[in-house]
Amino acid sequence: MSTSVLPRPTAGAVVERFGLLILVVAMIALFSALPSSGPAFRSMLNVQTLVANQGVGLVVAIALLFPLAAGYFDFSVGAVASASCLVTAACTATYGLPVWLGVLLGVAFGVGVGAGLGWMVAYLEVNPFISTLGAATLLGGAIFAYTGGLQITNGIPRELTAIGSGQLWGAPTIALVAAVIALVAWWLMSRTVFGRRLYAVGANPRATQLLGVDVRRIQFLSFVASGTVAALGGVLLLARQGAATSDSGMTMLFPALTAVLLGTIVIHVGRPSVPGTVIGLLFVAVLVSGLTLVGAPAWVGQVFNGAALLIAVAFARLARARGSAARR
């Protein structure tokens, strides 16, 4: 009987896969030890606030993963989240519909937008950059037209705001809901036929089609999944803020893009994944929180987010190039 021995991973490969995670742990240790930030950074209140504030961002970032795995950027996720937030608020606060129906209509709105974009990209072969950016601009304008630049703050159901500000088992409820959504997305992308075909289409659509896979259907479904998850992010945004934002959603897009692209340089290098996105999001959140507590100016967070996005794009490009070279 013959046995095969797997090569032992080198130290460089381990550092490459877990370098960002090691950096997150190092930053937590640093900001916890610094006299100027340690007491506040280590406090349970700061930990709970940091985790709760990332709930919406994590869900919006996960919405980006599905089309990105299929080879497309979806620039509409932030706008879909904002619009779904507004639809849910309008249904429940303005028109007095039951909470469950308002949430259902908000999510259905996201599913509809995702299906429309998927149909345009997969079956009409419209450029995904143009179609998703156009949808984001259209939704942003529609949000402003409906709200007049104001927020819907009155009449938001307490059942929703309780999710955004409440705790369960000592943890922020909104973070637990976001974790459940992340687990479902991880299962879909890593443990199902749909997930395997999603990555196959993203890597080589022509070869995947020759294997008998309906590539257009997978591309269509990736946008439907994106719209659905973004809409769930919008419902969580309403729960967290207790108000429907009049923002166009672009402020949520770039942090989500940063987290997703940073996630491609950790664990599954060169490939978008849920665990990588969680680590990418934590990296940005911990650093911004720590810098704020040590007294850094307010603009530092925005500058860092932009710099992190540029660095993440460069590293993601290098990782994809190395992956392609390895496959050849």
Portion in helices:
over 70%
The rough form would be described as globular
Q: Report the span from N to C terminus.
A: 31 Å
Oligomer: single chain
Indicate the low-confidence ranges by residue numbers: none
Largest sheet entry = 2 strands, antiparallel
Structural class assignment: mainly alpha
Average residue-wise pLDDT: 85
What does this structure look like?
With 328 residues, the chain is an all-alpha fold. Helix content is 76%, strand content 1%. A two-stranded antiparallel sheet has the order 1-2. A hairpin with a 2-residue loop joins β1 and β2 (171-172). The longest helix has 29 residues, at 299-327. It is globular, with a radius of gyration of 20 Å.
What is this entry, summarized?
With 328 residues, this protein is mainly α. The chain is 76% helix and 1% strand. Strands 1-2 form a two-stranded antiparallel ribbon.
SSE topology:
Blueprint: H1 11-33, H2 38-42, H3 44-69, H4 77-94, H5 99-122, H6 128-147, H7 158-165, E1 167-168, E2 171-172, H8 173-191, H9 193-203, H10 205-210, H11 215-241, H12 250-263, H13 274-293, H14 299-327
Antiparallel strand pairs: 1-2
Question: Which keywords apply here?
Answer:
single chain; 328 residues; mainly alpha; 1% strand
